[in-house]
Amino acid sequence: MAEILPIKAWRYHERFAGNIEELTSPLFDVVSSKQREALYANPYNSIHLSVPLGENPSQQAQFLLEKWKKEEVIVQDKIPGIYVYYQYFKFPGQEEESCRKGFIAQIRAYDWDEKVVLRHENTIAKSVNDRTDLLYATRFQPSPTHGLYEDPLFLLEPYMDVAIENPIYDLEDYQGVREVLAVIHDVPTIRKFLEVLSDKQIILADGHHRFEGAIAVKKKMEKDNPEHSGKDGYNFHMMYFTNALSKNLRILPTHRIFYNIRWSEKEILEKLQGFFFVKKLNDVEEISELILQKQWAFGLIFNTNAYKIRLLPEKIKELELDIPDVLKSVDLVILHYFFIDKVLEIPMVKQRFSDKIEYERSMHRCLSKVNNGEASFAIITKDISMKQVLDVCKSGYTLPQKSTYFYPKTLSGLIFGSIKDSEFKFPYEAFQP
Q1: What's residue 93's pLDDT?
Q2: Which of 34, 142, 184, 237 is the most buried (most CB within 10 A)?
Q3: Which domains, and CATH codes, for the chain?
Q4: What span, in angstroms and rounded, lies between the C-alpha atoms of 49 and 336?
């Protein structure tokens, strides 16, 4: 199953260790435009590598990366390690602090049909192309994707607990989460990590676009390399691994904002009648509570009115998709089929390419964009369960794009990974179990 390796990480030079908080950056889709402006204002922030600007962003990132290497803004570790990564946080309304435990390593960039890394949602084509171009130009990974493995015995947690007592970094991030990073260099311990994951499938929790970009780069470089060995750096990908059976995994909802829709509020409400029960709300703030306990229920927000909509139960028989029952129970499948496809007439096959749909984590930003007239309306969704994600992955099918938001998000800039052979190669056989 999953072949993983320790990673010869690149990190900010130790002279930057005192202000590492100012150099890390969140994933691009979870911060506001004002937050992004502040990140770009710092010339050494990792966002310049993860989401570069300019007319040719990939070329700009490549130029900056070489400059940083030459000036030792970032330096590479001499030997590979397993990087233990803990995130301490509180859920809303929670008194006790939670800790999501995991580690960063390399995994072979398995193609989807190998069924070692399992995806659970579709991707947005433009985002995949952007990630592919950036990785191909730089041969560099500014942030790990997030993978889940199932280990009911929790065999690796004791090793991680020991390592985290001697952290490299201990900081508070943009979301108020305490981020702690440590490293394991001990060869027998690293072998244990490789051994535990060797019979596991990996469920991709976050980073579908980046992982799909890694697959595309691997295929291109393999085709262009007559001496391809399977051990080349481009065969691997940097990933953060957490145990899917941990109680400290939380999936938050991702809402949908719609732009340039040709129908008025009245016309959309009329079109909804054939598919959904519709109830007008007195207070938009009620939406989250009203849809929480109801299957196939959503909030619909216009700039003057808000509604709760719920699929009429008998309509589920009209779901003309060749999918298993586990997907039919997922709210977002219902939303994308009956509302976006049937009501808005944006076909399922075209939705991942559509510029009429935006995906937003914050309900308040949804409200703002609708109220100021920037957007036509928004749909408020609720979270999906961990069990549903696991069941969907194992079914071989996928959910609509941006179905999950695993909280908290990982940071860019704590460590970086290179797939360039001269920076990747190491006698990794020493770590084999």
Answers
A1: 67
A2: 237
A3: 4-250+407-431 (no CATH), 254-382 (3.30.1760)
A4: 34
- Say whether 205 sits in a helix, a strand or coil: strand
Q: Identity (one letter) of the amino acid at 415?
A: I
What share of residues in the chain are helix, strand, coil (percent, to 5)?
Answer: 40, 25, 35
Question: Per the structure block, which two tokens stand in for 4?
Answer: 């993983």
Report pLDDT digits (tens) over 67-97. Answer: 999 999 999 999 999 999 999 998 766 778 8
Q: How far apart are CA 302 and CA 367, in angstroms?
A: 8
- What separation in angstroms does the CA of 383 have from each of 18, 144, 289, 377, 388? 37, 23, 12, 20, 10
Q: How many CB atoms lie within 10 A of CB 267?
A: 11
Contacts of 179 (CB under 8 A, 6+ apart): 24, 85, 86, 87, 169, 170, 171, 172, 173, 411, 414
CA dist 384 and 317 (Å) reads: 22
pLDDT recorded at residue 419: 97
Residues of the chain with pLDDT under 70: 28-32, 92-93, 290-292
Question: How far is 390 from 385, CA to CA, in rounded Å?
Answer: 9
C-alpha 208/C-alpha 215 separation (Å) is: 11
- Looking at residue 30, its pLDDT comes to 58
Tell me the HSE value of 318 on the side-chain side, using a 13 A CA sphere. 13
The 3-class SS string of 147-159 reads EEECCCCCCCHHH
User: What span, in angstroms and rounded, lies between the C-alpha atoms of 81 and 168?
Assistant: 13
Rounded Cα distance between 133 and 155, Å, is: 38
Q: Which tokens is 400 given?
A: 């609509």
Which residue in 279, 252, 264, 271 sits closest to 340, CA to CA? Answer: 271
β-strand partners of 258 = 357, 377
pLDDT at res. 224: 94
What lies within 8 Å, CB to CB, of 214 at 6+ separation is 109, 135, 141, 237
d(CA 266, CA 304): 12
Q: Are 6 and 191 in contact (CB under 8 A)?
A: no
- Cα gap 54→31, rounded to integer Å: 20
Do 179 and 414 touch, CB atoms closer than 8 A?
Answer: yes
The C-alpha atoms of residue 408 and residue 240 are separated, in whole angstroms, by 13
